[in-house]
Write a structure and sequence with these properties.
The complex is a heterodimer of chains A (416) and B (150).
Chain A: H1 7-30, H2 35-57, H3 64-83, H4 85-111, H5 119-136, E1 138-140, E2 143-149, E3 152-154, H6 156-172, H7 185-203, H8 206-223, H9 227-247, H10 249-259, H11 270-282, H12 305-338, H13 342-366, H14 384-407
Antiparallel strand pairs in A: 1-2, 2-3
Chain B: H1 3-35, E1 52-57, E2 71-75, E3 77-81, E4 88-89, E5 100-105, E6 108-113, E7 120-122, E8 125-126, E9 131-133, E10 138-141, E11 144-149
Parallel strand pairs in B: 3-4
Antiparallel strand pairs in B: 1-2, 1-11, 3-5, 5-6, 6-9, 7-8, 7-10, 10-11
Classes of the chains: A mainly alpha (416), B alpha+beta (150).
């Protein structure tokens, strides 16, 4: 146990455990001493301890990112159990699967070194998943983005995000230089991006379109010296957005309920106004878990979980979630900066952008800062595919940081 | 208002405090980590040409056989260990005879573990190779903690 001698690492981990114990004990009382709550809490705590111990003992690189993700999951599962215990039970199964996926993606990404050669595979994989969604998909809430296999259903667009980031990284890391039928990688990437976005338009999955587009734009901003190319892309997107607003009823509804949700409070503006009421009634420290009434908000367990956090844990609780995402993004950016391999750098940057953009879009939507588009808040929202895919992304980032750490000699100090 | 509502309202403050303590703890660890990225300039050479630094002792919970000094000075080079001949002699049984060496070279303070049994950690991380020390690093020699200061 010599690796635990540094007392420093323990304290945040202990606080996480304390948060778990207190939170689930409180819920246990709230739900009429339902023992299922205790099983959920014990299972979650056991999972966290298992994951964190393996990371520390096996020296798997950065030790903070997973710790912060675990804190976010704790807050999420507490709220989900409080909204509906069935969500909590299913979420914990997803977290367990996600933990397994985390270590699997860590091992696979760490040991295979030719990821930067496979751009064709990523592109075809993405297109294949989109086609499968269009053919076999189910329509939920106006978006055709679910595939069901028996009783099991998942969102292929979430998986495509990772493929898309790897695809972009192939180009931006300059590890893909040969033109494809006379089309240079730069324009091939451009084509691929807009092809993906085109498929998403067919699925009417506006939130994911924004995520894809922002990742692409920020990657260009970081890597491309030619600002005209960036301006071209932004300009094209602006034109498309205006056209979309002119001709698509769905987008008009979103924008009008963002500008003035009070005009049609019983129908179009219902969700956003309920969310604002919930946030307002929470105050600074919240009403306490179990005292609020988050079930007035439609879709509170997935898209609107941030409003529930603000109601029951207060503005400070909501700000803490944003702070945690800031810190995760900061750590990931630092890993991207110190990584040596250009492909690793680009992948890490892309995955960080994915977390950040998703958080910005959904938190901004819930607090009525930008028009609302439904996507999940990473690690907090209920959603199987989302949790597993986020854990896979973390596994990749962890593998990149472990590579870097082993290169510099077993610790974060520079060896001579 | 039931007992549960009251308890929940009180615990909402507790939760806020716990989350922010957690965030603070993580930020502190990250701060210690970031310091590694900004190497300090070689301004620790004093007039006499010998670089000096010091180890400030932190309070420890371990039962000690001998009292520790508040501060140990290092002039150019120091070996820390149990032996009386060491520059910094810590006469405790969990400190190896020659435990760790700290020395000044080319504008950097370096630290190297001399194959000790109980190991040396810096800012909570066990070291395997020689490392560059920064001011305010926390060094733990077999469990006795010091702050490295210039």
């Amino acid at each position: 146990m010599s690796k635990f001698t540094g007392l420093n690492y323990r304290r945040p981990a202990y606080l996480l455990m304390l948060m778990n114990l207190l939170g689930f004990f409180l819920l246990f009382m709230a739900n009429g001493y339902n023992p299922n709550i205790l099983y959920i809490g014990a299972g979650l705590l056991g999972l966290f301890i298992l994951i964190y111990t393996i990371i520390v003992l096996c020296n798997m690189g950065d030790k903070f990112i997973v710790l912060m993700a675990c804190m976010l999951i704790t807050i999420g599962v507490l709220l989900l159990c409080r909204i509906n215990i069935q969500y909590g039970i299913r979420q914990i199964v997803w977290v367990a699967l996600g933990g397994a996926a985390f270590f699997a993606s860590y091992a696979v990404y760490y040991n295979i070194r030719f990821w930067n050669k496979l751009w064709m595979l990523y592109l075809l994989g993405g297109i294949g998943l989109f086609l499968a969604t269009l053919i076999f998909g189910d329509t939920v809430n106006g978006s055709r983005n679910w595939i069901s296999l028996g009783s099991f259903s998942f969102q292929p667009a979430e998986i495509t995000k990772i493929l898309f980031i790897m695809f972009l990284a192939c180009n931006f890391s300059k590890s893909w230089t040969d033109p494809f039928y006379k089309i240079t990688p730069k324009w091939m990437t451009w084509l691929g991006t807009y092809l993906f976005i085109g498929f998403l338009v067919l699925q009417r999955d506006w939130g994911t379109i924004l995520v894809f587009f922002f990742i692409y734009i920020f990657m260009i901003y970081v890597y491309e010296k030619n600002l005209r190319f960036l301006a071209l892309n932004v300009g094209a997107a602006a034109i498309v957005a205006v056209l979309g607003y002119k001709f698509l009823y769905h987008i008009q509804v979103r924008v009008s309920s963002w500008l003035d949700p009070w005009a049609d409070i019983s129908n179009k503006g219902y969700q956003i106004t309920q969310s604002l009421f919930a946030i307002a009634s929470g105050g600074y420290f919240g009403r306490g878990i179990g005292n609020g009434s988050p079930s007035y908000i439609p879709e509170v367990h997935s898209d609107f979980i941030f409003a529930a956090v603000c109601e029951e844990m207060g503005v400070f609780g909501g700000a803490a979630i944003i702070l945690l995402f800031f810190l995760i993004a900061y750590r990931c950016f630092k890993i991207a900066i110190t990584a040596q391999d250009p492909f690793d750098k680009a992948v890490c940057l892309g995955l960080t952008l994915m977390f950040s953009v998703q958080t910005f879009i959904i938190v901004g939507g819930v607090i009525k800062m930008i028009p609302l588009t439904g996507i999940t808040l990473p690690f907090v929202s209920y959603g199987g595919t989302s949790i597993v895919v986020n854990f896979i992304s973390l596994g990749i980032i962890q593998a990149i940081s472990a590579k870097e750490e082993r290169r510099t000699g077993g610790d974060s100090h520079e060896s001579k | 208002m039931t007992f549960y509502n009251l308890l929940s309202s009180i615990l909402s403050y507790v939760f806020t405090v716990i989350i922010y303590l957690f965030i603070f703890g993580v930020i502190r660890l990250i701060y210690l980590d970031v310091k590694k990225m900004s190497r300090f300039e070689s301004d620790s050479v004093n007039v006499s040409g010998v670089a000096t630094a010091s180890l400030r002792t932190l309070p420890t919970k371990k039962a000690l056989e001998n009292p520790l000094k508040k501060r140990y000075m290092i002039y150019g080079e120091a070996i820390i260990g149990r032996n009386k001949s060491c520059d910094v002699s810590l006469r405790e049984k969990f400190v190896s005879a020659q435990h760790v060496r700290i020395w000044y070279e080319d504008g950097e303070w370096l630290l190297e573990d001399l194959g000790s049994r109980n190991g040396t950690t810096i800012n909570g991380q066990r070291i395997a190779h020689r490392v560059i020390l920064d001011p305010q690093d926390e060094i733990s020699v077999g469990g006795i903690r010091f702050v490295f200061e210039l």
